[in-house]
């Protein structure tokens, strides 16, 4: 019955949308036309969303990946508000399903949701920090620093039901990574479009992206630093996934995406992004129980380090020169960062709870233009956390991140039995480790799209034992069915 109704509603919604669109584009204007034309499809989306909250999680993943790039083309679009809306809507629908007992709530009671709640509580207390001179800065910034972490951990824990959902999410991520590569490829070989040129020359992007060492490409990410780190993240995860995932076509697909991601990381010209593969594959050496994989990872890491630090091979290439400078301790950019940290260290003395969330780095100029911390770039996620939440907040934050990594490693090494699932969990952990490493030199941990993907990865790792038990139960069920069939075959002979 429901299928028959859907067969009627979907075509009807499309026809109605087209008719309204044509009418309005003739009589009113194109913006209003698009709004009303898409309204029936929006209503249809909401109907399916209320039936299947998992669709909301996929929507979060999709919008998160492209939203900041879209703001470059639609100046009035507020990326953060759009993400707030879809996350809030999905969470509201999830609460309805929980109230109706359609979802198993105990899955949300895991380590990552608990520590994310602890971190959120600490950040809420920062509202009462006497040094926090702007409540607006707190209200704007706490979303990316703490709220998204908690909400995404809850949503992922409850809406990812099995390994099939995890693999679907990985495939979407891979497709989005391919699109990110294609956009950067077009920028490099066909040039920037009008919106990108406007951002470069009128938005200040040229200062950091059109530099003496060459052009830094950014795809549809916020900037080249975010793009390079994000594609490094994809490279690490998909390289390891290609080793463990079942099916030869799947292995080839994910390995190709890993190669494209590695190339994208290189043309971003982001030196800090190198920390992602180094941090990720270094952890893989310890987590892998496969000797060949461990040897290959070790050889790769040593080879890459020797190539970049002790040779001049490929030095004529701008991207290789820029990556090689990451190992230069006398690099002017590094010296500036160290000098800024020295200034902050002096200023932060006697401020154990920091200066308040949202008041660290140049982004704080809109709230406190004359404050000392608003005029010294933090250039690091961890330095930013230190300045805004103090040494106590920094220790708590690092402890939470390390706990997530350590417990995930424990699950991968000693708990999970299914090889494919264990490999995926290891891949996600290694990617998380890489983002931790690069966040010392870049503020990428809480940015779109990396932050949301990171929080989803953490939650998947922590609920993976549920998937593992389901896989084992399914295997036992198949064995029992096979035994029953054999017994029936034997008995039928008589």
Task: Give the % helix.
Answer: over 70%
The rough form would be described as globular
> How many E-type strands?
2
Sheet of most strands = 2 strands, antiparallel
Overall pLDDT, averaged?
86
Q: Order of strands across the widest beta sheet? A: 1-2
Strand content: under 5%
SSE string: HHHHHHHHHEEHHHHHHHHH
Stretches where pLDDT is under 50 for at least 5 consecutive residues are: none
Secondary structure tally, helices: 18
**SSE-based structural type:** mainly alpha
Return Rg in Å: 25 Å
N→C terminal distance: 46 Å
Report on this model:
By secondary structure, the chain is mainly alpha-helical. The chain is built from 18 helices and two strands. It has helices spanning 2-27, 30-51, 54-70, 79-99, 111-125, 135-159, 163-190, 194-202, 206-209, 224-244, 248-267, 275-287, 291-310, 318-324, 332-347, 381-415, 419-438, 450-492, and strands at 210-211, 214-215. It has a two-stranded antiparallel sheet with strand order 1-2. α6 (135-159) runs parallel beside α18 (450-492), α7 (163-190) crosses α10 (224-244) and α16 (381-415) packs antiparallel against α17. The longest helix is centred in the C-terminal third of the chain and has 43 residues, at 450-492. The radius of gyration is 25 Å and the shape is globular. The protein starts with a helix and ends with a helix. The model has no long low-confidence stretch (mean pLDDT 86).
């Amino acid at each position: 019955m429901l299928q028959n109704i859907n067969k009627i509603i979907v075509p009807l919604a499309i026809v109605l949308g087209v008719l309204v669109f044509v009418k309005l584009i003739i009589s009113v204007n194109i913006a209003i036309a698009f709004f009303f034309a898409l309204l029936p499809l929006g209503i249809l989306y909401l109907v399916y969303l209320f039936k299947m909250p998992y669709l909301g999680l996929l929507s979060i993943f999709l919008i998160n990946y492209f939203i900041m790039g879209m703001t470059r083309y639609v100046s009035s679009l507020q990326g953060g508000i759009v993400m707030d809306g879809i996350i809030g809507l999905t969470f509201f629908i999830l609460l309805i399903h929980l109230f109706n007992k359609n979802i198993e709530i105990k899955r949300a009671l895991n380590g990552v949701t608990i520590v994310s709640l602890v971190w959120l509580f600490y950040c809420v207390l920062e509202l009462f920090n006497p040094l926090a001179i702007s409540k607006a800065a707190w209200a704007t910034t706490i979303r990316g620093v703490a709220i998204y972490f908690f909400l995404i951990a809850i949503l992922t824990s409850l809406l990812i039901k099995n390994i099939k959902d995890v693999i679907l999410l990985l495939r979407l991520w891979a497709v989005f990574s391919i699109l990110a590569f294609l956009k950067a490829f077009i920028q490099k070989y066909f040039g920037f479009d009008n919106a990108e040129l406007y951002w470069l020359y009128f938005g200040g992007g040229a200062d950091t992206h059109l530099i003496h060492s060459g052009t830094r490409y950014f795809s549809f990410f916020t900037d080249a630093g975010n793009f390079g780190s994000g594609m490094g993240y994809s490279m690490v995860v998909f390289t390891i996934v290609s080793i463990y995932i079942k099916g030869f076509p799947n292995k080839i697909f994910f390995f190709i995406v890993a190669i494209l991601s590695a190339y994208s990381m290189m043309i971003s010209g982001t030196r800090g992004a190198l920390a992602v593969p180094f941090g990720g594959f270094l952890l893989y050496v310890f987590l892998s129980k496969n000797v060949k994989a461990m040897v290959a990872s070790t050889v790769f890491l040593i080879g890459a380090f020797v190539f970049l630090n002790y040779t001049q091979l490929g030095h004529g290439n701008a991207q290789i020169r820029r990556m090689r400078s990451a190992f230069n301790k006398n690099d002017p950019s590094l010296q500036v960062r160290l000098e800024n940290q020295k200034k902050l260290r002096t200023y932060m003395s006697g401020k154990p709870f920091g200066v308040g969330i949202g008041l660290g780095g140049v982004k704080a100029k809109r709230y406190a233009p004359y404050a000392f911390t608003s005029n010294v770039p933090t250039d690091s996620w961890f330095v930013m956390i230190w300045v805004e939440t103090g040494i106590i907040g920094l220790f708590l934050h690092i402890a939470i991140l390390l706990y997530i990594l350590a417990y995930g490693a424990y699950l991968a090494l000693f708990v999970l039995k299914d090889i494919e699932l264990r490999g995926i969990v290891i891949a996600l952990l290694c990617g998380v480790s890489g983002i931790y490493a690069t966040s010392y030199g870049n503020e990428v941990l809480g940015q779109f799209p990396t932050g949301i993907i990171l929080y989803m990865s953490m939650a998947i790792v922590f609920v993976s034992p549920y998937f593992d038990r389901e896989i084992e139960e399914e295997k036992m069920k198949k064995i029992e069915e096979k035994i029953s069939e054999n017994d029936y075959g034997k008995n039928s002979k008589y």
